[in-house]
Specification:
- This protein has twelve helices and no strands.
- The longest helix is centred in the last third of the chain and has 33 residues.
- It starts with a helix and ends with a helix.
- Helix 1 packs parallel to helix 11, helix 5 packs antiparallel against helix 6 and helix 5 crosses helix 7.
- By secondary structure, it is mainly α.
- It is globular and about 60 Å long.
- The protein has one domain.
């Protein structure tokens, strides 16, 4: 019992640390990398993050797991798709932060569970409970409110929500039999060739910032963006292995909540009444989801006890 309680504490600490890092990442981008092209930030996150993950795999002597993943065509193809989708999320995460849309990024992560629910119906053939349909309708109405009130469609929010939901779907289909660290490393390595090509193009078009005028603070922050990308993913794997899935799912809202706080209070982004109303509706939709999931879980436990 004592060991299980310690595991839960470690898992909870890992989850909270993960979501805190992700939540305040927009501040890191804006304050420390404000003049860098979002594509270059993506490149350095991929390259230096891959270095960290390869180091972890080497230290843990898990290269055998990497070979198993590469030999498994289903896992390999699934992780290749997942890596592409994660690259999309990372790019628009940085782009949103650097163009004064950190709040839109937060909205995307809030909407993601609703998109995941729709994918469960459209792709997996699952049937939604009435409360889940109500939640989906409220979420869709929230997007309409934000669009009308803000004067433009929140496309960054929608891209992040759809890409991350598809990423979660791709990962769920290959997660069995694939160690979390090995899967993350393969995902990252798949992006390295594209990252290298983008970096070459940035230098060829004079858009690169790294080491153009020597080494300084910008180079340091770009290098550190790799570990700040890799370590939360590793911590998340630790949390997922030690905490109930329901708790991990509920804690995930800490990430966009902190992004929202960072965008409004730290980065001073505008928050007109209609935009706030849209967020309020999204939060209502998520509350309906959480309550419904809790009630469904309680019903399943009662049926099992009987």
């Amino acid at each position: 019992m004592h060991e299980a309680e310690n595991d839960r504490r470690y898992g909870l600490a890992a989850a909270v640390t993960t979501y805190a890092i992700w939540g305040f990442f927009p501040v890191y981008f804006v304050l420390l990398l404000g003049g860098v092209d979002p594509l270059e930030i993506l490149v350095h996150r991929v390259l230096w993050g891959s270095v960290v993950l390869v180091g972890v795999i080497t230290a843990a002597r898990q290269w055998g797991s990497i070979k198993e993943v590469i030999r498994n065509s289903r896992a390999r193809n699934g992780l290749a798709l997942a890596s592409l989708l994660m690259g999309v999320v990372w790019f628009f995460y940085g782009y949103g932060a650097l163009t004064g849309r950190a709040v839109d990024v937060a909205l995307g992560y809030f909407v993601c569970p609703l998109v995941t629910m729709v994918l469960a119906v459209a792709v997996e053939g699952e049937k939604l409970r009435p409360a889940q349909w109500v939640s989906a309708v409220i979420g869709a109405f929230a997007i309409v409110i934000v669009t009308v009130g803000y004067g433009s469609f929140p496309w960054i929010s929608c891209i992040i929500a759809v890409a991350f939901a598809l990423y979660s779907l791709a990962k769920s289909r290959v997660s069995r039999g694939v160690k979390a660290t090995a899967g993350l490393t393969v995902e990252s390595i798949f992006l390295v060739p594209a990252a290298g090509a983008i970096m070459a193009w940035l230098y060829a078009t004079d858009r690169a910032a790294f080491a153009v005028e020597g080494l300084g603070s910008t180079e340091l922050w770009l290098v550190l963006s790799g570990p700040l990308t890799a370590f939360p993913l590793l911590l998340f794997a630790i949390a997922a292995a030690r905490l109930p899935l329901s708790l991990v799912g509920n804690l995930q809202y800490l990430n966009p909540a902190l992004q929202f706080v960072a965008g409004v209070l730290v980065l001073q982004e505008e928050m007109p009444l209609t935009r706030l109303l849209g967020f309020g509706l999204v939060w209502l939709a998520l509350a309906v989801l959480v309550i419904d999931a809790s009630q469904a879980r309680t019903r399943r436990v009662r049926q099992f006890v009987r």
